[in-house]
Design a protein that fits this description.
The chain is α/β, with parallel strands linked by helices. The chain is built from 12 helices and 7 strands. Helix 3 (80-89) links the parallel strand 1 (70-74) and strand 2 (92-97). The longest helix has 26 residues, at 3-28.
Length: 288
């Protein structure tokens, strides 16, 4: 996908999050990502919000993040991860998003938390980040990679803005591995993926081993990957259950057609995890 094709999709992503972020915050809180339900997905937690907080905690433990001084949160949403990282490490954090609505709400939340001196948010394209090279100790990408039309270019940008010795932490939607000896994606699987892509304005997903190969080809070192599909899959059932509440359904309808379309994808995500078509991939790596 070249620049001329990416711009219309980026605009659709912007509109989607401009329209849906407020209702997501009211219903599911400040973290716009999966939750963690134990390694096998069987640990019950108090709420989806608690599961989302646990995901950040477990991801930081798994990736062995060590006291970053300057952090970039790619696809920051309304600042959930950014504020968590700033508080945990007393670090300076910049969050980027395509959505001005998310940028404004994240900035408002940072001011309310007394963190606006350390945490800031800008509207920026992760495919061409407006930062000099060697700027950040940590690049944190929690469920934004699936929105990137060119995964290699995205990881190249992450590598560019990292300082030597800096760490990338990537958690992203993937589809199942389709390289031999695994069977190729069937026509039915491809149709199901396309429905999800269309509803969530995704250019497409790739298998986790492809992310690993791209990172190695770009020159990242200390690469580790993990599949946490079982650990996060119950989140979509919780989201579906809460979305069926009359109050939430009414809010979805009031939020507009974009939000309605996004809600229609929830059962598809439940099904995708159940069949193994949708996978939740983790990658961490270091800039040499």
């Amino acid at each position: 996908m070249d620049g001329s094709e990416w711009k219309p999709l980026a605009e659709k992503i912007r509109v989607f999050y401009d329209k849906s972020s407020q209702i997501w915050e009211r219903v599911w809180g400040e973290h716009m990502h999966h939750g963690y339900y134990g390694p096998d997905g069987r640990t019950r937690v108090d709420s989806p919000r608690e599961a989302q907080r646990l995901l950040i905690e477990r991801l930081l433990e798994w990736s062995d993040v060590q006291q970053p001084e300057a952090t970039l949160d790619v696809g920051c949403g309304i600042g959930g991860s950014s504020l968590e990282l700033a508080d945990r490490y007393s670090a300076a954090v910049i969050g980027i998003t395509l959505s001005p609505v998310q940028r404004d709400r994240a900035s408002e939340r940072a001011r309310a938390a007394g963190a606006s001196g350390r945490v800031s948010f800008v509207v920026a394209d992760a495919m061409a980040m407006p930062f000099e090279a060697d700027r950040f100790d940590l690049v944190w990408s929690l469920e934004s990679g699936e929105h990137m039309p060119d995964k290699q270019r995205f990881l190249q940008e992450c590598l560019r803005v990292l300082r030597p010795g800096g760490r990338l932490v990537l958690a992203t939607w993937c589809h199942r591995d389709d390289a031999q000896p695994a069977p190729p994606l069937s026509a039915a699987e491809q149709r199901e993926l396309k429905r999800i892509y269309d509803l969530y304005h995704l250019p497409g997903t790739i298998p986790l081993p492809v992310y690993e190969r791209i990172a190695a080809d770009l020159g990242f070192s200390q690469i580790r990957v993990a599949d946490w599909s079982e650990a996060v899959a119950p989140f979509w059932s919780d989201v579906l259950q809460s979305a069926m509440q009359p109050r939430v359904m009414l809010e979805v309808l009031r939020s507009g057609w974009e939000t309605v379309l996004g809600a229609r994808a929830i059962p598809l995500m439940v099904s995708g995890y159940r069949t193994g078509l949708i996978r939740y991939g983790l990658l961490t790596a270091v800039k040499p």
